[in-house]
């Protein structure tokens, strides 16, 4: 199946979109990218404590050529009064949990 997507240039590309207006909605972000092709999903990252936008998000497009065109044309463009940053998202390597197991001790435990 991966060969099928590669043959037809349909590798899903994850795109980072930064410096967004804090009032921008996910539907607006999706509409912005739909001008360049099909959009699988659009997600604006929300702060879990305040409930406000963090000012960045991610867009998934199934066609790499359309995604690259969107990146080239939208990067640095003015949207909602702000110059947005648009580039291909690079997956972060998995981080180790340093607080698990016996490696983590509270300071008060040492004084017992």
Q: How would you characterize the overall build of this protein?
A:
The chain has 112 residues and is an alpha+beta fold. The chain has one domain (2-82): RRM (RNA recognition motif) domain (Alpha-Beta Plaits, 2-Layer Sandwich). It has three helices and six strands. It has helices spanning 2-7, 26-34, 64-74; strands at residues 13-18, 41-46, 53-61, 78-79, 82-83, 85-88. The strands form two sheets. A four-stranded antiparallel beta sheet has the order 2-3-1-6, with helices on one face. Strands 4-5 form a two-stranded antiparallel ribbon.
Given the structure, what is the number of helices? 3
Under the CATH scheme, the architecture is: 2-Layer Sandwich
The main sheet comes to: 4 strands, antiparallel
Structural class estimated from helices and strands: alpha+beta
N-to-C CA distance: 59 Å
